[in-house]
Amino acid sequence: ISQCQSMSMMDTSCLSSSGSVEKERGCVGGEDGMTITQEKTLVAMLANDPSQVKIIKPGNAKQKHRLGRVSFKLVGCFGYPFGTVFEVERGVLVKKEHYDIEAELVEDGNVEKGHDNRDLVDDAQHQKLTADEIYHMKKSGESSREDIIKHIARNSETFSSKTEFSQEKYIKRKKKLHMKDVVIIKPTLRVLTDFYTLHYPDKICHMREDALSMLLHRVNVMSGGRFLLFETCTGLVCAGMAQRMGGRGLLMMLHSGNQPPQKIMHDLDLSSEEKSVIMNYPLAEVKDLDGSLQHIEEGEKVILQQEDGPAKEKRLLSKESKKNALLELKNASFDGLVIATKFRPLSMLPTIMSFLGPSRPFVVYHQYKDPLLECLDMLKGRATDVQISESSLRYLQVLPQRTHPLNMTSCCSGYLLSGTTLATTSTLQNVDSLTPTSPSSPATATTSSTTDLSDDENVAKKAKMVGDDTGTISSGKN
User: What is the pTM of this model?
Assistant: First the structure.
């Protein structure tokens, strides 16, 4: 479908002879046996207008849903594979059998004959059918939607004189106006990103799918890793990282407020195994972990003195999970850091970076460049390979002799500040505390003597050694 502009969920090869979407950018579950059920989150989309999309929660089968001017209930779509095309009949979804109107109406060869539209005047006077006649055809139910579009095209005095390309555009406009075809697709990460980018960009900090994929690539999210995350993107980044980790490793999600944002994670229908890697901890308590641990232990003693009941068990579980997250933070040496926020990242970046081990990647996303420029001075001496990048994405219409970029597209998808941490005095101390060594080993003696010096003294000592060897540096200051 070529008119899908900024939300190009499907292409012209989507519809097969059976009326199902075969290649919907990874959203179809027909090939791997995934079917539409009431227990899953669904995404409903108009087949002829992909900008009309709605996320439907589980358990809303009997509720009436609306897409543009089309209202329907989900009754009738269960049991079919994801990507099946349905037609709305009397408010109920009915599986649609494929019917190619273009093959019957479009006359091939008009372009080769040299016809053009320079003398074409396309207005309502050239249509023989009136609006009342079209309305009665719909109301009677004797004619299908495809037959109505055929009657409209054949009663147009200018349709036969149009070029082949103009005829296809004419039919697509009429299908968008008169047909009620709904596609039920699986809510994948890419579909949800496109949905929020089109309808609610502020909720995900204007992060497009290309920026999200670059973010996950730069921080090297993988199964079995230990990652730190702070985001205000309604759970979009958390859902993408948890899905990539596949139930192995640790994803420590720092959050502001009482609860972390997890809406998109619930819409993605992650399995319990994929959710098991996520641990939450408030960002406000990160600076004083020892004091927070003491406060949690005192709270547990108070709860144990209360009467037994469901509320007591729930509060104990909450305290226990928070205590486990705190102990994981105290261990430090995380493998990567991701910050995607609408706040100033400089206020939190120095504190969170202290939990990273040496030579670990980090990525900071923001909608604007200026907050990231503030972080550059702070990162001097703490990170290497620091760069600010901006991704560019433009959708293309791919049709015979009509391949061109779409004019309406978003101009910016935010900026990424990425880099790799360096081994500083604090990180070396964290690594030494986690790695037991023999007291008499030479490595221990070297590390302890280096740690006693400040950073400036270490730099001066190394510079003096280089100057003595090469003669190019005369003093540590140089």
Answer: 0.73
